[in-house]
Amino acid sequence: MKVLTTIQQVRDFVQAARARQLSVGLVPTMGNLHEGHYSLIRAAAKECGCVVVSVFVNPTQFGPNEDYATYPRTPEQDLAGCQAGGAAAVFMPSVEEMYPRGQTLATVSIASLGDNLCGASRSGHFTGVCTVVSKLFNIVRCDKAFFGMKDFQQLTIIRRMVDDLNFPIEIVPCPTVREPDGLAMSSRNSKLSKEDRAQAPALHASLELAREMILEGVRDSRAIIEAIAAKIAAQAPGGAIDYVKVVHPDTLKDVQVPDGPVLVALAVRFQGARLIDNILVDAAAKAS
User: Fold this and answer.
1) Is 204 a catalytic residue?
2) Which of 34, 37, 125, 204 is catalytic?
3) Is the pTM higher than 0.70?
4) Strand partners, 154
């Protein structure tokens, strides 16, 4: 496995892979890798002959009061996991390599899809995400890129960006990987206190409650949201709800009457970390 630190090194590496008739898969990450990331790498290795993993904590997607400086960084652990997962190369650039002039003049944003959910309280976040991902797409020039469904809003926005900007790339969504108690794996889980970590599985439990309600015929999103909030208040008193939403999975707009496929999504702030999670439910299906 190669460790690459410059854009030219990546381009040369990918060119050599293509000379050997290998398809190229990209797994963009911010490091501090866990089983969720490794599942993406393994999925990419099954579908592509050459897998490139990017490890870059992107400063442009962090707000002024967010945790860029303290975001967990574990490069040695990350490299070992990438190699075990089947990566052919890891791209670990510096901030100066990715943004040699500092703030970029050209940025990429998708306004309507970034207004709801996490975008409502994280101004500029998805502009930073789209900008760095578009840069990675242009650097690696991959055939496929693999993203987890835990960050569903990000996944939806990246898909739209690829369509709108005509990137010749297939976006491959991968299921959320969970701890045995249901908590969605996240690099930020390590920042939770012992008490908050014990309460955090209530997020997924509340989403499962929402699924049950929808499949049993509840068609009032307000009632579903209230039930989620009550369960989190009872089981995770250390968390403060940022949002709970029932939205359309393609437009990310609020749905008042769930009568088809919907995304139930939430964000909860604990003292050490802000956690997100979601669940897809087809309201037209019947409870088993």
Assistant:
1) no
2) 37
3) yes
4) none
